[in-house]
Specification:
Layout: H1 9-23, H2 29-57, H3 77-80, H4 95-102, H5 117-124, H6 158-167, H7 178-203, H8 208-214, H9 230-241
Length: 245
């Protein structure tokens, strides 16, 4: 007895087309409803076959990132597809997947995921070098810059990087709507304003007369402070320094 072959996507589409032709001009509601159920079941089966085919075709890819981006801040695409053979030696991030697989509800934050804006400004203005330090005190953003120029496989266009980033996204995503876009835009504007405030605070702080006029309370004595006559003190010091005659 010949072994029964599983239907292919092509066979399922042919069956759906055949049923649709039978439905054309059919007036019996019960028969029409039954045929519609058959079509729905065939479409579900077709989607499952496509999904299975895609999983079988998944192979390891050479993941690329722009020069200067820390690989540990980029999710490993091969690990998501369960085809990464590097394990702990992989230079891309596996942490997110491990957290889900281990079932950890809360995991300590291992560090920021944003690159320092002062670092970006220094790079754009050709001011970055090995001795560069962030001018903002206690900055918690990323300041590590990895030189990947020697590795030709890491150089790619912005479009390629965006596509790889899109592929590495998880399932729990916020859909892009006009409302969510406006919220994101407002957040970016606030971040830019905060960054400009930091720059202004570093470049121009109140000094001298400006500080006295803006914060006079800093120069006021406490109520319990002891009153001293500095002129009398100066005279007494001169008397002590004068040798006896």
């Amino acid at each position: 007895m010949a072994k029964k072959q599983n239907p292919t996507t092509k066979d399922l589409k042919a069956q759906i087309k055949e049923i649709e032709e039978k439905m054309f001009g059919l007036k019996n509601k019960k028969q029409k409803a039954a045929l519609e159920k058959q079509i729905e079941a065939l479409r579900i089966k077709d989607a499952e076959l496509k999904k299975t085919k895609v999983k079988k075709e998944v192979t390891a890819v050479i993941q690329k990132i722009p020069v200067g981006v820390d690989p540990k801040t980029v999710q490993c695409i091969n690990f998501i597809n369960k085809v990464c053979k590097e394990g702990d030696n992989c230079r891309f991030a596996h942490e997110t997947i491990k957290k889900v697989e281990n079932g950890a509800s809360e995991v300590a934050n291992k560090g920021p995921r944003h690159v320092c804006r002062f670092l970006l400004d220094a790079i754009n203005n050709n001011e970055f070098n090995s001795s560069w330090k962030c001018p903002f005190p206690k900055c918690n953003d990323i300041h590590k810059l990895i030189d990947l120029q020697g590795d030709a496989t890491t150089e790619l266009s912005l479009e390629e990087y965006l596509e790889f980033s899109r592929q590495s996204l998880g399932d729990n995503l916020t859909p892009l709507t006009e409302e969510t876009f406006n919220q994101w835009k407002e957040k970016k504007v606030e971040e830019e304003m905060e960054h400009q405030k930091k720059i202004q605070a570093l470049s121009s702080g109140p000094k001298g007369l400006e500080l006295f006029e803006s914060k006079p309370e800093m120069f006021m004595d406490d109520e319990e402070a002891v009153e001293l006559d500095y002129r009398e003190r100066c005279y007494s010091d001169d008397e002590e320094d004068t040798p006896p005659i």
